[in-house]
Design a protein that fits this description.
By secondary structure, the protein is α+β, with helices and mostly antiparallel strands. The chain contains 3 helices and 9 strands; from the N terminus they run ββββαβββααββ.
């Protein structure tokens, strides 16, 4: 029998500038070392932090942008089974409704850049982002979708568990 993997809860926040370009971070540490992804982080479970509170906190910590929970639109929840064979993740995906005005300075977690949605297709990004997160963003960022991803094999299989609204 395989050993039990830890389960972690996190948020990803999709932020745009006024030109509609998306803010991404080139990750300087694991998970996703050396690839581009939206900002985010793990919930502070010891304090009972909610996904919305985490999204607001991470947005401020990583970019300096001050937002409120009302500035966040939860558009997806995805459960990833055995990501990189090490951890199960429950991720909440948010779209920040407040644009960011400039490029944030580098932080220990990585450096930032703005990219058009088309340019992101050619960047080094995690397999799960390519298979699930960006297609989810493209289709459901105005609504809500719940999904699960089986990362125990490649290609990753993604299945929808519920959809509300969307484009």
């Amino acid at each position: 029998m395989a050993p039990a993997l830890p389960y972690k809860i996190s948020v990803l926040v999709f932020i745009e500038n006024a030109a509609g370009e998306l803010l991404l971070m080139l990750r300087a540490k694991q998970p996703n070392l050396g690839v581009w992804s939206p900002i985010g982080g793990k919930l502070e479970m010891a304090t009972g932090e909610s996904p919305f509170e985490c999204a607001v906190r991470e947005t401020h910590e990583e970019t300096g942008l001050s937002v409120a929970g009302a500035d966040m639109h939860l558009f997806a929840m995805i459960a990833e089974k055995a990501y990189q064979g090490e951890t199960h993740w429950l991720m909440f995906l948010f779209r920040c409704k407040q644009p960011i005005t400039g490029l944030p300075p580098d932080i220990t977690e990585g450096r930032f850049a703005f990219y058009s949605r088309d340019a992101i297709r050619n960047l080094p990004i995690p397999e799960t982002d390519k298979a699930a997160l960006w297609p989810i963003y493209d289709q459901y960022r105005e609504g809500f979708v719940a999904l699960k991803a089986d990362c125990t094999r490649s290609p990753i299989t993604v299945s929808v568990e519920q959809i509300t609204g969307g484009t």
